[in-house]
Amino acid sequence: MLVCRVYDFYPKTIKVSWRRDGQEVTSDVTTTDEMEDGDWYYQVHSNLEYTPRSGEKISCMVEHASLKEPLITDWNPSMSEAERNKLAIGASGLILGLVLSLAGFIYYKRKARGQNPLELFCRSPLVLMSLVFNVD
Predict the structure, then answer these.
(1) DSSP symbols for 34-54
(2) SS3 of 84, please?
(3) Are residue 64 and residue 13 in the same domain, yes or no?
(4) Region label for 22, one of left (φ > 0), alpha (ψ between -120 and 50) or beta (otherwise)
(5) How many CB atoms sit inside 10 A of residue 31's CB?
(6) Kind and range of the H or E element at 112?
(7) Residue 85 covered by a domain
(8) Where does the Ig-like domain lie (predicted)?
(9) Would you place residue 82 in the very low, low, confident or very high pLDDT band (cuts 50, 70, 90)?
(10) Are 27 and 48 in a shared domain?
(11) 106: domain range?
(12) Whether 90 and 59 share a structural domain
C-alpha cells in the first residue's frame, strides 16, 4: 500500500489523486475527509492499495487553491539516509535486547539450580599439580 499524506493546508477544499505512468488511478484508492489539525489548518491522507512494479512511475498529485499548479510527488522506492539510520538503530536495539534477554535467562536458570550464576562468565583457574619422586 502506498500512502500520500498532505498536511498544513488552508482553505479546507483540496483534491488528492494518484497517477500511474501519468494516467489517473481511481480503483483501490481511499482518501480520508479533510481533518482539522487544531491550528486552523487541515490534513488529508490518501491510500493506494497497489504494489508498484519495476519501472512504473507512481505519483501523488495535490490540487489546492494555494498552489499555482498541481504539486506532484513521485514515489521513490529507495530509502533515505534518515530511514536507513532508523532501521539500523532499531535492528541494533533488537539485537541488544535479545542478547540481554538471553543473558538474563541463563542467569536465572543457573541461579534456580543452585549454581553460581556468574560461573558462566568467571571461573577459577584449574591448577594441576603432580608430584614426581626420584627412585634411586
Answers:
(1) PEE-SSS-EEEEEEE---PPT
(2) helix
(3) yes
(4) left
(5) 17
(6) helix 81-112
(7) yes
(8) 1-73
(9) confident
(10) yes
(11) 81-120
(12) no
Structural domain total, the chain: 2
Report if residue 125 sits inside a domain.
Answer: no
Do residues 45 and 102 both lie within one domain? no
Is residue 69 located within the same domain as residue 91? Answer: no
pLDDT tens digits for range 59-68: 999 999 999 9
Give the mean pLDDT of 33-37.
93
44 pLDDT above the threshold of 80? yes
- Burial (Cβ within 10 Å: 0-12, 13-18, ≥19) of residue 45: middle
Mean pLDDT of 112-128: 57
Give, for 80, the enclosing helix (H) or strand (E): none
d(CA 127, CA 119) in angstroms, rounded, equals: 17
The residue written with cell numbers 507512481 in the block is 58
